[in-house]
Description:
- With 666 residues, the chain is of the alpha/beta class.
- InterPro entries: Formate_THF_ligase (IPR000559), Formate_THF_ligase_CS (IPR020628), P-loop_NTPase (IPR027417).
Amino acid sequence: MSIHCEIMPFITSLHVSVCSLSLKDFKLELQMGKWQQEISWLLFVFFSSDIEISRAQSPKAVDVLAKEIGLLTDEIEIYGQTKAKVRLSLLERLKDQPDGKYVLVAGITPTPLGEGKSTVTIGLVQALTAHLNINSFACLRQPSQGPTFGVKGGAAGGGYAQVIPMEEFNLHLTGDIHAITAANNLLAAAIDARILHENTQSDKALYNRLVPVVNGVREFSAIQLARLRRLGINKTDPGTLTEEEISKFARLDIDPSTITWQRVVDTNDRFLRKITVGQANTEKGFVRQAQFDIAVASEIMAILALTTSLQDMKERLGKMVVANDKKGEPVTAEDLGVTGALAVLMKDAIKPTLMQTLEGTPVFVHAGPFANIAHGNSSVLADKIALKLVGEKGFVVTEAGFGADIGMEKFFNIKCRASGLVPSVVVLVATVRALKMHGGGPNVTAGAPLKKEYTEENLQLVADGCCNLQKQIQITQLFGVPVVVALNVFKTDSPAEVDLVCEIAKQSGAFDAVPCNHWSAGGRGAVKLAQAVEKAANQKNSFKYLYNLELPIVEKIRIIAQKVYGAQDIELSPAAQSQVDRYTRQGFGNLPICMAKTHLSLSHQPERKGVPTGFILPISDVRASIGAGFIYPLVGTMSTMPGLPTRPCFYDIDLDPVTEQVKGLF
């Protein structure tokens, strides 16, 4: 059948010939819209894999897309045919433009397969823009290559609700994660090198090398002058410092046992979880145990996601605490003199990347912190720019990682504090299969066929598992924001199961609950969801944070554990309590909390499904990301470096040497 729908004012009008699953192909025609762009006919062929669906659609040129949404020629930096960086100067030009509505997509506690938050996000904006003629923007995280080549795969969405070209989205993009890796590891190298040089040189020799004579002139660099001022040394001539001042300036006296800054790589590599550095003879016996984290766990990634300007990013980079000195005082990137260099490496990464959905609607891809070991949200800057571009009646839809107890809680308590933005609606994604798991169904394993409990109707399992959905609705209500449940429908779901979930969700306080078929039908399959979101956005919003920042660190952790996870109480290890005391003494006690916890359960035990109760949440360690602006407790045995499974995704990924086309990505 053929459906006509007007595209949003800043895109085009759209004629869509929609197919059922049995049809071989259908055609997507983009005609001239308000801006009178010439858009070519596109052939859309129904294939079985996400990458084939993505490749069957020819995306419009990114400069055409940019013009449609109101960007000026000098506000974009084009990368190839389908990607562009957007300059932050746009915010100044549009500063008087009212913001649009702000929508967060979260989810119930997921299976290891994921429940489709990304596809819901894409399906929703396609429905809003391509089918309801409402300006909308999706803001997504850049995927790490760890999951892309590990178990989970990419994060472009799927089926007929995805970002295209999906291989460009999932592989390298515009190099932001590589920039973060380079900046992170430059700082790590600076730490070890500084310790080595301080251990092997006198004060005078160290000072002479830090402030050398160049072409007959000896002077401090700008960052060294800033360090002198912090030390209370109000001198600018290197020749006038006393011996005591020289020692104070030249020596950081880093205590190696307190180093918290780790090297990173964007690969799941379990054998880097504990390493020894400094074993070469040239390092003169300076050997210590260290580790690698996955790149997206770097504090620099968190800073990229939370920063509001280039100046703000530079200040945050300088504040990053990497260790303590031997007196117990924090040592920062600014102390190491590396802030400016880090900012140079990140100067392009701070700009959001513009892409498009399968139906030609705009997407920003920017930042990619994990939600279980970081705060799990895309960038503040992408959201702010998108809110200006869509206009007062438009919608910006962004996604928080994993379940609402993880990504959504951090979105509200960390990201919204940093941005000052107030969300209008939460879309809570659920699937029948995940609810069956929470109702007592057998374990779900990535790569293994689903057991019959998940492929045959079982209303009792669904009903029992809705306790997790009800709990996540209650968590959302703690923040005073209306919630719409989006049931991501699979072909194995029966109509009775779908109806049961929607009825329970509405009885449990959801503004609405809507079955969605965006994976198979694109935006058309999410029109009812879009209509429900539009209505919910007009409801009374009494948004509030969960805790006051002035509360002690331990009390803030306890509030999250009890009110969000449902724990009876928390228990801090001696090491965790010692770190809390240290951060409080150092003046960091008023920061928000970013819990590092398994995403597979409301508790700290991944095998406990549904809504666990009566458990004591163990806090094994507490660390601080001072530049990013949060304290992060580690719950149980959380690892910041994932490992590869027996059969990773890379077995199926290949490159055709003739066509240069990527195969096997999903």
